[in-house]
Specification:
Layout (H helix, E strand, L loop, with lengths): L23 E6 L9 H11 L3 E7 L2 E2 L9 E2 L7 H11 L3 E6 L3 E2 L1 H6 L14 E2 L2 E3 L5 H17 L4 E4 L20 H11 L14 H26 L4 E4 L6 E6 L13 H13 L4 E6 L1 E3 L2 E5 L2 H13 L4 E6 L10 H13 L7 E3 L3 E5 L22 H14 L4 E5 H4 L4 H6 L3 E4 L7 H12 L3 E5 L27 E3 L5 E4 L13 E4 L3 E3 L7 E7 L19 E8 L2 E6 L3 H8 L2 H12 L7 E4 L4 E8 L4 E8 L3 E2 L2 E2 L9 E5 L1 E7 L4 E3 L10 E5 L6 E8 L1
Parallel strand pairs: 1-2, 1-15, 2-5, 3-4, 5-9, 9-10, 10-11, 11-12, 12-15, 17-18, 17-19, 19-20, 20-27
Antiparallel strand pairs: 6-8, 7-8, 13-14, 16-29, 21-24, 22-23, 22-25, 25-26, 26-27, 28-33, 29-30, 30-37, 31-32, 33-36, 34-35, 34-37
Helix pairs in contact: 1-2, 4-6, 7-8, 8-9, 10-14, 14-15
């Protein structure tokens, strides 16, 4: 699949700079017995695999070095100094070593000395699992003793970076058993100091304190991360700290699946995380470590090589670098994914220069709110609005619609948009999709409204901006650009309803005159001078067959399109994207995509030909080049991932470029078919695309 090439420029030998470039990391979550593994052999195995960064245990629950701290347990299997030997071995091979801390728990040494530092539920029970005790974010283990561990280890060892496992609040065991919230005195006191009220009695919005508790967890976790980050920079200024939200030098997340998750499998997890990291990090290096194993309870059964390739392809295509996660060392009982992953790592090493300094070049953005969509932050507020149960389906449906329509897009995130500089981030896009973004702050709304007024095209659905950032209902939308006058009235239970499609309203042909509607419809009063498309057929009779004919058609629209300053705002008063996620009806996708495309300039890149493809575009400003990725999903069928059949006969059109293109995976130069067409596209016939292809070309 990956063409062997002459190596590119060598990776930097200064291991302290590992995080400033597109690295290739192998994370080893070490067991106690792995301290006995030959560290020189491990470093060589990691290097031979194609990686240039090794993630190795430091301490927290168990120290992998001879700690002098009384409450940090030493790995009982260790002989000598495993961490010291690993650092020496890694540096001798020219690879960086990132130390892994797990401050989320401690052994009985810490718990029995200071039980008040650890999580206790309303029954007074400690959250214990296999002899380890969960630390409370607001307790002394996290707030103070973790800093002692950091000071001791970073003062003694020349590590190149640090990673913290399970940073934050936990109310479940590894076995998935719900434990309840922490009600220790530290949490009680701190919550009361911040909000002047007691902790909620249960975790749902029937308790008036619950919205504040969600914010409390978020604020205190970010404050702790900031405290740790600042401490690291005092002790070892050159050591880079990985992170997620909050203070960090780079963004690092995790891609994995769980066998108990509801189907269908979400195939875009890796790409979504990469896009989120790019949007949140604003220039920081991003990776999302891909778990080798299928689930936590079966950490030694490997995912397939093709699954690892499609994850990695999504991440490279969306601005992230390569990261591979093992439980234990390289000596695994199931190496199903090793050959494909190692070959990809070596290919990336040879092509690393093409991935340096890339920035997104899409013109369409999809909005991600950590208050609404779970997975990248505190989340949970979206459960408060009436349509909260559709939050994830709305986001994923919009994501799928854009991806499957082969429209290059990026994410923008609420936290970036709401802070200084957010307007500049939004200004690079021509269109923004708000998929039922129920919860929105006034600050977010003002930035978005100003962007529309300046010429942006906004597509918003359902209950977007009808609730504040904590999920409290508003009397009217926060977005003044929406072409409606007031809060819409909700019509629930639209089962059996349709939209009538008039001739020429959608690019779906004259044979299709209906779109399907379900869930809810939002009866809105349009402002003056708007355009509408589609007409609602309210719930129709669907049985017995003799009575299945339309008996009423309304004038209520399927979309309302209005002007706001130089821009346009489109309001879709139903859950079109959530229905697309559920049903995958292509005409629903066409409806959403067409509403965007008809109002903006042609996309910077498009692909002709059959196949399940995702297309992304990035810019390398330093060299004046454009990098287009095509990701092949043909090997994925729900939760089955096999080798993707090669796609043949694809044509790639790119605007504002010139000359021959380089197919980096195939290792071929491809010439344009001829001069640019009347829309400015230069067209290329692509070589067969296996798992993915990366096309590099010079920008005009």
């Amino acid at each position: 699949m990956l063409h062997d090439q002459e190596p590119g420029s060598a990776a930097a030998t200064n291991t302290k700079n590992w995080w400033k470039r597109p690295y290739r990391m192998v994370q080893t979550n070490l067991r106690q017995t792995d301290a006995l593994y030959d560290q020189k052999a491990l470093a060589k195995e990691v290097k031979d695999f194609g990686a240039d960064v090794l993630l190795y245990n430091i301490g927290g629950i168990y120290a992998f070095y001879p700690t002098k701290l009384a409450l940090q347990a030493i790995n009982p299997h260790m002989k000598g100094d495993a961490l010291g030997d690993a650092i020496e071995a890694a540096h001798s091979e020219g690879i960086a070593l990132v130390g892994r801390y797990d401050m989320s728990k401690a052994t009985r040494l810490g718990y029995e000395a200071h039980p008040e530092w650890f999580v206790h539920n309303a029954k007074g029970e400690a959250l214990e699992y296999n002899g380890t005790y969960q630390a409370c974010v607001n307790g002394g283990w996290y707030q103070d003793y973790s800093l002692d561990i950091i000071s001791e280890s970073l003062s003694k060892y020349d590590v190149d970076g640090v990673f913290f496992n399970m940073f934050g609040y936990t109310n479940f065991t590894y076995s998935g058993h719900y434990f309840g919230t922490c009600t220790c005195n530290n949490c009680r006191r701190r919550f009361h100091d911040m909000y002047g009220k007691p902790l909620p009695l249960k975790e749902d919005f029937s308790d008036p304190s619950y919205a504040d508790y969600l914010e409390f967890k978020d604020r205190t976790s970010l404050e702790l991360r900031s405290r740790v980050y600042k401490h690291i920079k005092q002790v070892a200024p050159k050591v880079a700290m990985t992170g997620h939200r909050g203070d960090s030098d780079l963004i690092r997340m995790e891609t994995q699946r769980g066998v108990d998750r509801p189907q269908p499998e979400w195939p875009y997890q890796a790409g979504e995380q990469a896009r989120w990291g790019q949007a949140y990090g604003q220039g920081k290096t991003v990776s999302s470590t891909s778990a080798n194993f299928i689930d936590f309870a079966w950490r030694f059964v490997s995912e397939s090589g093709p699954y690892q390739l499609v994850r990695a392809a999504q991440q490279l295509a969306s601005g992230a670098t390569l990261d591979f996660y093992l439980l234990g060392v390289m000596d695994q009982d199931d190496k199903s994914a090793f050959a494909d992953t190692s070959k990809l790592f070596h290919w990336h090493k040879d092509n690393e220069r093409h991935y340096v300094g890339l920035t997104p070049a899409s013109k369409v953005a999809l909005y991600h709110s950590h208050a609404v969509v779970p997975g990248h932050g505190a989340g949970g507020y979206s459960k408060r609005p009436a349509s909260g149960h559709l939050a994830e389906a709305s986001f994923r449906g919009a994501y799928r619609a854009l991806s499957e329509a082969r429209i290059p897009f990026d994410l923008v995130v609420d936290e970036v948009i709401a802070r200084p500089g957010g307007a500049e981030v939004l200004a690079q896009y021509e269109a923004l999709v708000l998929p039922n973004v129920t919860c929105m702050s006034e600050a977010e709304a003002k930035v978005i409204d100003a962007w529309v007024k300046a010429g942006g095209v906004l597509l918003a659905t359902a209950e977007t901006s009808l609730y504040d950032h904590k999920g409290a209902m508003r009397e009217k939308p926060a977005l003044e650009s929406l072409p409606i006058t007031d809060r819409p009235m909700v019509r629930h239970n639209m089962k059996g309803a349709y939209f009538r499609v008039a001739p020429g309203e959608l690019p779906i042909g004259d044979d299709v005159k209906l779109l399907m509607l379900d869930h809810s419809y939002y009866v809105a009063e349009p402002v003056g001078g708007v355009e509408t498309v589609l007409k609602l057929l309210p719930p129709q009779r669907f049985g017995p067959p003799e009575l299945c004919f339309p008996d009423y058609e309304s004038d209520m629209p399927g979309a309302i399109i209005g002007s706001h300053g130089k821009g346009k705002a489109i309001y879709v008063p139903w859950h079109a994207e959530a229905l697309y996620y559920r049903d995958s009806l292509q005409h629903t996708r066409t409806f959403l995509v067409d509403l965007i495309q008809r109002h903006i300039a042609p996309a910077p890149v498009k692909v002709e030909g059959r196949g399940s493809l995702e297309v992304t575009i990035q810019s390398q400003k330093e060299t004046g080049r454009t990098l287009v990725h095509l990701v092949n999903y043909g090997g994925q069928r729900n939760n089955l991932y096999e080798e993707a059949p090669a796609l043949h006969g694809l044509r790639l059109g790119i605007r504002d470029v010139e000359g021959a293109a380089q197919a980096l995976v195939a290792g071929k130069t491809i010439e344009p078919e001829g001069p640019a067409d009347d829309q400015g596209y230069l067209w290329y016939i692509l070589p067969p695309v296996d798992a993915f292809e990366a096309i590099q070309i010079t920008s005009k």
